[in-house]
Amino acid sequence: MKRRNRQRSSKNVEPEGKPSASPKRNAFVSKAVKFFSQGWGAYTIPLLLILLYYPLELAPYSAVLGLLCFLSMVYIIVADMKPTKAETKNVSAPLWELAKTLAIALCAWVIICIILQTAKPMNVVTSCSMLPVLHRGDLVFLQGGQINAPTAQISSSLKASDVSYVNCTASFYNGSTAKMPCVSSVRAGSSDYPARTQNDIIIYDAEPTAYGAIIHRSVLWLSAGNQSFLLTKGDNNAILDQQSGISPVTADRINGKVILTIPAIGYLKVFLFAGFDFILRLPTGDVTYAMSAFDAPAGCNYVLSAN
Questions:
Q1: Domain assignment of residue 139, yes or no
Q2: What are the pLDDT digits (tens) for 27-66?
Q3: Which of 125, 162, 194, 225 has the most CB atoms in a 10 Å sphere around its CB?
Q4: Prediction pTM value
């Protein structure tokens, strides 16, 4: 009987050794979850997805990354709006914090507008028409004032024959190339004015308004009597904006010239608007069509260069 009792008691005694690693692992996981779900840690998720999307923009499943980034942004917005236990007891506290945040943001915006001399000091690149200088998702800062581009006096409208072309090479990201004619200069009066890459990059409100705000390079000011018009072109486009149905740009429709660029941060806006477009497309029942809201627009798969 004694031997049997000893054997039973020995079975109940756990062998001595290293403590189990599961509590440490569980603690690490809980800390990681808490970090990525609260405060500044929550913002790292969409930023990491953007950094991953940036080099994979043309990959077959890049739209999935865009959707994940949009969903993570929605989570952050909802989490920030959810009141804490302390805020549920004191309703006026979060409203006061929101009012202070909006006031600070408004004051900062007004100060930036005054310093940069423009009512629209920031914007986001949403297309690839300015490659390789500006990339889709770049955040750009603008400054008002004089636009650097040559000026030509004209007495009549320009004709199609006043635009000269050269052979350009479109280098695709898959390694292939293609030849196409692209604008090299504009003849106004008795002089030829090349489409120089030294001219200022501007943002202007296009006419017709369906084109929205366009970020392209200034080419040539045309002065006719007491009126002036600006011709513009995307560095990665083969033709002038005005050859595609956009009216010559007047000074009052120019928001400013680009003075500073921050890569990739603008994807937050790109994915936010793409996400809303995705939601509007879902009722069609075509998931592929809905996911295409996150696809890169036409022209992002090549870079144009003059021979």
A1: yes
A2: 777 777 776 666 677 778 888 888 888 888 888 888 998 9
A3: 125
A4: 0.83
